[in-house]
Amino acid sequence: MSDGYLIAGNVFVQRLNKQGQPDGGTIGPINTTKLAIKVESESKQRTSNKKADYGQVLDDVRIPKPTVINWAFDDQPTELVAMTLMGDVVAINDASGTLTDQAVTLPADQKWVEVGQKNFAAVGLMVKQGVAELVLNTDFEFNYALGLIRAVKGGKVDAGGSVTFTGQYNARSGKRINGALNSQIRVRLFGEGENLANGKQVEFDIYDVSMSPSSELDLASTDFVGAEFEGTAKISAGKAAPFVVDEITA
Questions:
Q1: 190: pLDDT strictly greater than 90
Q2: C-alpha distance from residue 107 to each of 97, 102, 149 (Å)
């Protein structure tokens, strides 16, 4: 039977709080492109100052260094995007409503201005200058998703000025990432897989690793967005080692 090592695996991640306790549910399996464990040691040497063997090593003791974990992935559920941005996730739960004759001042240079809400319906939209109703895409442009309005060059409000806005905005629900709130992310990385070389089952568990992004998150990327983290594994209370890798034979 082959002893090669080529793992097809399912990786799961569980976020931990500052005390190293689970903080929310487990996410996964995550399409992981790299999960590298680097175990290092530091050499402590005693050298000779004697005439016969000056400079030679008399003792060489290897002291363990922290285990370095590199984790890269290209699945991007909201929770992992938040981790990449060193942030937290909160719920979006905005109610619907209507703006009626909302006063808005349009700039003279056709720049956008916010009306005060987002996610507008296309029906019932009305913009007036005094009592005169303005025409959409002739006198003004409107961004329904962001609630942005601007004058159209050559239209009735080309020079800008005060208008009133009436429109219905829809409810919004989802998730918001409040970014750059944390100096580090603590997670547990664990999973299972198959060694494709010999069919054996492999399981692993990195109990507690403090990580930070080692790459940027490009929101304007023309390719699939990925992320990479680097950090150090710690020995959790009650554990004999910072991580384990199990090879199951039966």
A1: yes
A2: 26, 16, 10
pLDDT digits (tens, 9 = 90+) for 104-124: 999 999 999 999 999 999 999
How is residue 144 written in tokens? 């329904």
- Alpha-carbon distance of 8 to 212, in angstroms, equals 25
CA distance 199 to 135: 68
Longest dimension (CA), the chain: 104
Supply φ then ψ for residue 80, to 5 degrees.
-75, -35
Contact between residue 207 and residue 189 where contact means Cβ atoms under 8 Å apart? no
177, 182, 188, 194: CA torsion to nearest 10: 60
In angstroms, the CA 198 to CA 222 distance is: 38
The 10s digit of each residue's pLDDT in 15-50 is 999 999 999 899 999 999 999 999 999 999 999 999
Give the span between the Cα atoms of 57 and 137, in whole angstroms.
82
CA 233 to chain centre: 20
pTM: 0.84
Q: Is the pLDDT of residue 134 over 80?
A: yes
| Spatial separation of the C-alpha atoms in residues 106 and 112, rounded to whole Å | 8
CA pair distance 193, 67, nearest whole angstrom: 22
Domain boundaries, the chain: 7-90+177-248, 96-170
> Residue 96 corresponds to which tokens in the numbers above?
């619907």
- The full DSSP string for 160-172 is -EEEEEEEEE--E
Tokens standing for residue 170 = 């829809």
Helix (H) or strand (E) holding 101: strand 97-106
Alpha-helical regions (H) of 25-164: 78-84
